[in-house]
Specification:
By secondary structure, the protein is of the alpha/beta class. About 30% of the residues lie in helices and about 15% in strands. It contains eight helices and eight strands. The chain has an eight-stranded mixed beta sheet, with helices on both faces. The longest helix is centred in the last third of the chain and has 14 residues.
Amino acid sequence: MKIGIIGAGNIGGNLTRRLTALGHDVSVANSRGPQTLRELAEETGATPVAVEEAARGAEVVVITIPVKAVPSLPSGILDGAADGVAVIDTNNYYPQQRDGRIAEIEDEGITESRWTERQIGHPVIKAFNGTYAQDILDRPRDAGDPGRIALPVAGDDETAKATVRALIDEIGFDTVDAGGIDDSWRQQPDTPVYGLQAGVEAVTKALAEASPQRPAAFRG
């Protein structure tokens, strides 16, 4: 599968490592330019590209950059992607810690991923946002292993969601359908499932126990 990754931080870098190890054709981009990704490219075999080129031909695109940087993505960032491209949003809104206050999220009460959809003009699938980056490398398990971690996955496009869930299964994790993007508040920061390293049953329970009230620590 051809996969474009926008963002080469902890999550983006380790997804690049894991997905190339599984044989996927990965292009990776960051805000500083492909020349700064030479070491990651040499390590993994991924192709470093400019942000504008990351989605070209991609069947899956991963956006894994700070929320505050999303509006700065080039216009038409998904132009040239494969038909039906599945876009994974790994982002979290940290107003006090990093991103500053975003009025639409705070005042309209929309989910973080719904806001991201508006910025890029394309539906997204929310996944990996509460995953420890090192777990991507250290915690994959075969299907049926009692120690296999489950990740919540939310999105409105059922076909794209199925693609993402199949990819996560290939990476080595179970998934739990967390509903649509309007339900994705259940996996935002400081919810019971955020950072939870557990199986399907525990993740399902944690999603059900989430409160729609945004915690004070994550309000601008």
